[in-house]
Write a structure and sequence with these properties.
This protein is an alpha/beta fold. It has 2 domains: 3-103 and 284-304, NAD(P)-binding Rossmann-like Domain (Rossmann fold), CATH 3.40.50.720; 105-275, NAD(P)-binding Rossmann-like Domain (Rossmann fold). It has helices at residues 19-24, 40-46, 63-68, 87-92, 105-121, 123-131, 155-167, 189-195, 215-220, 238-246, 284-304; strands at residues 3-6, 28-31, 51-56, 74-77, 96-98, 147-151, 170-174, 185-186, 198-201, 225-229, 250-255, 273-275. A 7-stranded parallel beta sheet has the order 8-7-6-9-10-11-12, sandwiched between helices.
Length: 308
């Protein structure tokens, strides 16, 4: 029997509006059996037999995995980024790939602003002190007084810009494919790093952006500035970030994603680092919209291939 595999561990079948179309076509729906992000070996094993479509999370859909999936014809990502999918291999093997680029925008932008506010007002740090029995107010700073430097001015970067401007922040940005903007000042990467009080990353991960914040670029950042990453972990050289935080060249970092996840590394030991568990899109309204869009993309993709 042909199968559709849902690998994203948080998926709600109630959002699969067209599931009946699959059942009527004799196609079974199988869920992620591990309840967490799958490893390359795990996904390779799961797709080996009779899987014609994947509703995918962030598991590594590498050339090896896709080559092992002899029946696979459609990948529908529940999310924006496609860096977890080997697109060249998918094209070579005749596998159609879809994503949901619009749905996560507001949720990721809001978490980005939340991290900025938490960093500036020391909310998590004060909460921890109170729980340990210490009533210790910590002096903070206003987002309204800060220059926000965005690296990337796509959907999410633009949404962050609007939210930050609503607080009164000045927003500047670097994006090599954006030549003009009505409300954001555009500069070179070096100039954004020099001017920004808070640098926030909003670019996909690829050969050009991997470690875009490396030791050299971090050294160009304004002393005492903060870095926020609610995008992809590989954008930051974590060793260089750790050194800059320990030396207090940077006053803080707010991170939702890491090069290797789940993250258990040394950044967790630093008091000027706040972390969340790669949950930029984890707002209920956003997840529902993403899951509806991804499942619709999957069914439409199967229809186009004549499999339904």
């Amino acid at each position: 029997m042909s199968k559709v595999l849902i690998t994203t561990s948080s998926f709600s079948l109630g959002n699969f509006a067209q599931a009946k179309s699959l059942h009527d076509a004799g196609i079974a729906i199988e869920m992620n059996p591990h309840g967490r992000r799958l490893s390359e070996d795990e996904i390779a094993e799961l797709v080996a037999n009779d899987v014609i479509a994947i509703l995918a999370g962030l598991e590594p859909l590498t050339d090896r995995v896709l080559s092992n999936a002899k029946s696979l014809r459609v990948i529908a990502r529940c999310g924006t980024g496609l860096d977890s999918v080997d697109l060249d291999a998918a094209s070579r093997l005749g596998i159609d790939v879809f994503n949901t680029p619009d749905a996560p925008t507001q949720a990721v932008a809001e978490l980005t602003i939340a991290h900025m506010l938490n960093s500036l007002r020391h909310i998590s740090a004060t909460d921890a002190k109170m729980r340990s029995g210490s009533w210790t107010p910590i002096m903070g700073s206003l987002l309204a007084t800060k220059t926000i430097g965005l690296i990337g001015l796509g959907r999410i970067g633009n949404a962050v810009a609007k939210l930050a401007q609503a607080f009164g922040s000045r927003v500047i940005a670097f994006d090599p494919v954006v030549s003009s903007h009505s409300s954001v000042e555009l500069f070179s990467l070096d100039e954004v790093l020099r001017q920004a009080d808070i640098v926030s990353l909003h670019v996909p991960i690829n050969d050009q952006t991997h470690h875009i914040l490396n030791a050299h670029n971090i050294s160009q950042m304004k002393p005492g500035s903060i870095v926020v990453n609610v995008s992809r972990g590989g954008l930051i050289d974590e060793s260089a970030l750790e050194s800059a935080l320990k030396s207090q060249h940077l006053s803080g970092a707010a991170l939702d994603c890491f090069e290797d996840e789940p993250y258990t590394g040394p950044l967790l030991q630093l008091p000027n680092v706040q972390v969340t568990a790669h949950m930029g899109s984890y707002a209920r309204e956003t997840r529902d919209l993403m899951e509806v869009e991804a499942s619709t993309n999957l069914v439409n993709g199967l229809r186009k291939r004549g499999l339904i």
